[in-house]
Amino acid sequence: MTKRIPESELIINADGSIYHLNLKPEHLASTVIAVGDPDRVEKVSQYFDEIEFKTSKREFVTHTGKYKGKRVTAISTGMGTDNIEIFMTELDALVNVDLDTRLPKGKHTTLDIIRVGTSGSMQTDIPAGSLLASAYGIGLDTLMAFYSTEYTELERNVAQLVQQTLDLPFRPYCIEGSKKLLGIVGKGLVIGNTATCPGFFGPQGREVRVKPAIPDIIERLSSIDLDGFKITNFEMETSGYYAMGRLLGHDVLSLNAIVANRITQEFASNTYDIVDDLIKHTLDRIAGH
Ligand code: R1P
Ligand code: URA
């Protein structure tokens, strides 16, 4: 018999909405565009034919509506894989748990979740202004020390090589994103493999006033070549999305607007336009254009 999920494990607000996201099941479309910056949600929904629902709580701002007739939800997540663990678990519960009986539903619903975020490149041939889809996420965070999943041989080999290359005292992880979404939404973009860091400065090799423990992290990561598998860019969420997507059974793809090149030290002056291009590309692909 399926087990009832206790109140303490899955928190529902008094109005029936889910705790952090502040959403009820009817507020969510089966295609979700997830962005880091709460102000970016309206940059997505400005293109909707109509907005049917808006809410916000903490960093989670939601607009649901239609784009060229396709129902879409745009939500912000804030930064980091710890936020993504909450985001993905609650999104999944909205479609795969009966919030009244607190029982998992018999029939699984798969969501299409597309991250539209910014990122720094670590390869000279991927300049600022590029739009990149992540085939794999390489987690330099510790989220997957707390969940178990199956990894492919390639994923295990990449994780081991990254651990050796950086001489890390813990095991990173490598997870593939949705092949289905890569073929649809990734079409026309640079395809790369994205390192997800638990911070913007030291963990990405940036020195402001404190020297990072691995000052040459960019050189080390960008030099990895495992039978053609190269790491192309840095950001802070992709591995968490791909891990939670695999655990919960959702199609997830991370898209990256490259705003900086960390090798050539170039920073794009028009980050707004690059992100806008990525938003329009994403909306058109999911609407089938
Ligand atoms: C850091 O500036 C933030 O930008 C990137 C990183 O992943 C991190 O969240 O993504 P967003 O532009 O989606 O926030
Ligand atoms: N986001 C990141 O996490 N790193 C960058 O260099 C740019 C955007």
From TrEMBL:
Residues 32-264 form the Nucleoside phosphorylase domain. This is Nucleoside phosphorylase. The lineage of its organism: Bacteria, Pseudomonadati, Bacteroidota, Cytophagia, Cytophagales. Pfam families: PNP_UDP_1 (PF01048). InterPro entries: Nucleoside_phosphorylase_d (IPR000845), Nucleoside_phosphorylase_sf (IPR035994). It comes from Belliella marina.
